[in-house]
Design brief:
Blueprint (H helix, E strand, L loop, with lengths): L2 E7 L6 E5 L2 E4 L1 E2 L4 E7 L5 E6 L22 E2 L22 E5 L1 H4 L5 H5 L2 H7 L3 E4 L3 E3 L9 E7 L5 H14 L3 E6 L11 H4 L3 E5 L4 E3 L6 H18 L4 E4 L13 H16 L4 E4 L21 E3 L1 H12 L12 H10 L6 E3 L4 E3 L13 E3 L4 H5 L13 H12 L4 E5 L19 H16 L14 H6 L10 H19 L12 E5 L4 E6 L2 E6 L5 E3 L4 E5 L4 E2 L3 E3 L3 E6 L2
Parallel strand pairs: 8-9, 8-21, 9-12, 12-15, 15-16, 16-17, 17-20, 20-21
Antiparallel strand pairs: 1-5, 2-3, 2-6, 4-5, 6-7, 10-11, 13-14, 18-19, 22-23, 23-24, 24-29, 25-28, 26-29, 27-28
Length: 575
Amino acid sequence: MPDHEFAVWAPIPERVQVDVDGTLHPMTRDSDGWWRAVVDAHVDSRYGFVLDDDPTVLPDPRSPRQPDGVHERSQLWDPSTVAWSDTAWQGRSVEGGVIYELHVGTFTPTGTLDSAIEKLDYLVDVGVDFVELMPLNAFGGTHGWGYDGVLWYAVHEAYGGPDALVRFVTACHERGLGVLIDAVFNHLGPSGNYLPRYGPYLTESNTGWGQGVNVSEAGADEVRRYILDCALRWMRDFHVDGLRLDAVHALADRTAIHILEEMSAETDALAEQLGRPLSLIAESDLNDPRLITPRDRGGYGLTAQWDDDIHHAIHTAVSGERQGYYSDFGSLESLAKTLRHGFFHAATYSSFRHRRHGRPLDTATIPATRLLAYTSDHDQVGNRAVGDRPSQNLDFGQLAVKAALVLASPYTAMLFMGEEWGSSSPFQFFTSHPEPELAKATAEGRKAEFSSHGWDADDIPDPQDPETFARSKLKWDEVDTGEHGRLGALYRQLIALRHDEPDFADPWLDHLRIDYDEDRRWITLYRGAFAVACNLGTDPVTVPVTGEVVLASTEPTVGEHTTLPGHSFAIVRTG
């Protein structure tokens, strides 16, 4: 058996041993809190660490594989042994692309990375540029959203483990698809989190999902390194093209060099080394342009960020919903303002937050492609009480208008799996915590949360019920049927137009002109020689646009002006 150096950062315990295939070996402590031992081991040896006098064998915080779950021994996995066949892939930045967010467990009936490969040709046909996978890190139980991960370096075994991810990324790159992974660095899940036994990974602050991660208090340097090394691992060892960084506003960093700036710099250095672009996309509710401002201009230098304001402005204008954080949105004025300036709340008062929020975006220097526009995502669907999609509440025309406003906009576009055919499946909140007390608390907490907002507790799905998970799986047999097929065809045409016409690639918001009529419920976006006219009302309206109709959801009447049927759009070549 070859020698292997086992190492773990554990400044808290006084003694650390490594258990390799059932045999304990002493480890030597360095001055920086790292413990090391060279031990004979197989390429797939099971191992873990024993801290002080507790005989429990704990998994490696940097575990490359957890074949038996997050409470058990880790397993070695060597990325250098992978024979990659994607050398022809040159990569590309996410800016201006079309991203497809999916949850591996519900994307296909079997819910694995290998079964997801079977649907990649479909995504290519739709026109998708990138596949964004919801979190793959190891978490407690067999199925869940993945945001309660506890071993960030390991690929969840129920999805197929690290070898399956290699096969998936290879298959994507062979088809010209980029791959993004949703990475959660702001908190850890409640089941299997042994990091506090090793070192000061957490703080006393609370993110709302658990204790905050220590990125700026005593001992933070090694915790930051833990995060940065994990981020780089996905892009280096698994060839992924970038990360979606979950809820970065929950990273309480008070240091002079924010961890996001540090991650951006190291990602750019890795991209230079690999010879292909790498992208970092932040999820943030701060409306803070610093995230996507270049580092040499005082920003963090991230590639892009999700833009919930765009989602809220489109959804409320089309659907009429106004509750909760939608309260400031709904008018065509707010829709036009958001599409024209990127953020709706830009140092302006937020009635939901009861304070000023956000900061204006410098649209002359920051292109719209650094913001992601979408009509659905896992949060905006799954965090509704019953996980209902827009397609379960809106008609074909309303869904078509939503699609046009996103895909014909200057922003980087994102779809949520099944959106493009108006999937009838909900996407509900589901868990599979093996601990009875945690399972009970999760179910009761979910019901209490939404009951307080007026929902009948009996209508709230139990996250632990296997049927909640099963209901959330896509129904692929409906893709080409009836209105589903009609909507899917429209999405393909919109994406093709976006890819083929240079006017739709213009990223500068200063070039975007918008007209609207609040009372008659129409809005028009002007993209170079094209006018994207949308009727959000139920009655036909005549808009001051004329020319050649190149795409429409329902046939308009074109004369001196264009008359749009209720709930419809038309893209007109005006020049």
